[in-house]
Amino acid sequence: MQHSGVEVHSTACIEFARDAGLWTIVQFADSDAASQWEAPVRSALLLLADSGFGGERSRGWGRSEAPEWRAWTPPQAPALDQPIEHAHWLLSLYTPAENDAVDWKRGSYTTVSRRGRIESSARWGEPKQPTKMIAEGSVLLAANELMGAASNVAPDGFPHPVYRSGFAVTVPIPWRVAA
């Protein structure tokens, strides 16, 4: 069927229940980063709420109420007779930093390979170098808090670096030591 001069268009709408919505965690590297970036992050999320998510925003779809902010305190390990260590439950993809002392013989983790294409006016569409990363949902044991790293995934000879974020966003969880 031919539609001359008519652009075919369809739209669908999903309505969410009251108090449903987007949940996110914002984690800063330290208190200096928090003081520098908290206000801009809040402003960006407020703009997103005002302008809307998805298509048909010009018709008023996708808008939401102003974001609600809550401080989050990680759960504390319960008092047990067994020795407890703190593990790190990954909420993000993770690339270990040079100083991250992960015990790779314990924990529960999977690796994933990330690829993609570069969006740069220098050379648009070239493939990024593949990166092996630790998957979200993995549980890692390390003596200190995990930091993660951003790695340069630009192909050889590319005119500028191209970074893939592998910074760790974690929730500390108790890990029972096997007796």
Explain how this protein is built.
With about 180 residues, the protein is of the alpha+beta class. Helices cover about 10% and strands about 20% of the residues. It has one helix and seven strands; from the N terminus they run αβββββββ. The strands form three sheets. A three-stranded antiparallel β-sheet has the order 4-1-7, with no helix packed on it. The protein has a two-stranded antiparallel sheet with strand order 2-3. It is globular and about 70 Å long. The protein starts with about 30 loop residues before the first helix and ends with a strand.
Helix percent reads 10-25%
Rg over C-alpha atoms, rounded to the nearest angstrom: 22 Å
Question: How much β-strand is present in the residues?
Answer: 15-25%
- The stretches of 5 or more residues where confidence is low (pLDDT under 50) are none
SS-derived structural category: alpha+beta
Main sheet attributes: strand count, strand direction, barrel closure: 3 strands, antiparallel
Order of secondary-structure elements: HEEEEEEE
Biggest sheet: strands side by side, in what order?
Answer: 4-1-7
Number of strands: 7
Alpha-carbon distance between the two ends = 71 Å
Shape: globular
Mean pLDDT: 84
So how many helices? Answer: 1
Ordered list of secondary-structure elements with their pairings:
Layout: H1 31-51, E1 84-90, E2 111-114, E3 131-134, E4 139-141, E5 148-152, E6 163-167, E7 170-176
